[in-house]
Amino acid sequence: MRAEKTIEERYQELKQLVPAEIREKFEQMEAGLRLPDMTADLPFKRIYDAEVHPERISYLLQLIFGEEFTVSGSVREEMLGTSIYSKKSILDVLARLSNQGIADVEMQVVAQEFIVQRSELYAADMIVMQYSARKNQLKSEITYLDVPVSYIVILMKESPKIFANDIARNNSEYSVIQDELKNLIKSREELIVMLADKYEEIIRNSEIAQARREGEEFGEARGEAKGEARLAKLVNILLENEDFAQVSQVTTDKELREKLYIKYEIM
């Protein structure tokens, strides 16, 4: 009977799959020599958790829009439970406002020249989510004009050329956030999630290059989109199964990748 791997064994195994530079950063975090990057997915979502820290979302919205805002909690579970569309949208932090509107706060690490167009897609998703999530009303009784106001804030580690560079203001809250980040890295489970995110990012970047090569046969755009989606789905399955060895192989072994696509019925 195969013994289940411990959290530490899973963490160390996954750590061997990432480049030395990333591995060194995580070892420094383990030793307490550095904090996790607060712009990374997990730390960011913890810092701006609308259930735990609604006041931070309120402050951010007030700072940007110049209005008073009160955040009453997270809306993610509500949307996932009531909207048939929301499962197609992956938004970082969804908060419910006292005026019944919702706010989405996104962290963008890599500068993207198309960020404005992307924000328009986020806005459209939020409107559709609210429209489809209305309860106790017939569809004929509501229109998109009845949907409460939605607010989107995109924080960027690096700004694209269309924006002027700005320097963040000093915030007395930052010392509290530092303490939260220190506590975060005491958990191996949280470190595994952050490390898995880094590894998936490597996979995605590798797949984009691979899809571009394969896309020459069918058209670059079509091949890239399809290839990236298939490999992302396969990697998620392997990570869920804790099959880290095969996760490493599928990025370079096309034959193995095709076999696993068939095995897991990924078309």
* Class by SSE composition: alpha+beta
Number of helices: 11
Task: Tell me the overall shape.
Answer: globular
Looking across the biggest beta sheet, what order are the strands in?
Answer: 1-2-3-4
User: How many domains in all?
Assistant: 2
Largest sheet: 4 strands, mixed
Per DSSP E runs of 2 or more residues, the count of β-strands stands at: 4
Helical amount among residues, as a percent range? Answer: 40-55%
Query: What is the gyration radius calculated from CA atoms?
Result: 21 Å
The string of secondary-structure elements, in order, is HHHHEHEEHEHHHHH
Uncertain stretches of 5 or more adjacent residues: 81-89, 216-224
* Average residue pLDDT: 75
Strand content: 5-15%
C-alpha end-to-end distance = 33 Å
Would you give an account of this structure?
The chain has 267 residues and is an alpha+beta fold. The protein folds into 2 domains: 105 residues, no CATH class; 135 residues, no CATH class. 53% of the residues lie in helices and 9% in strands. It contains 11 helices and 4 strands. A 4-stranded mixed β-sheet has the order 1-2-3-4, sandwiched between helices. A hairpin with a 4-residue loop joins strand 2 and strand 3. It is globular, with a radius of gyration of 21 Å. The two termini are 33 Å apart. About 7% of the residues have low confidence.
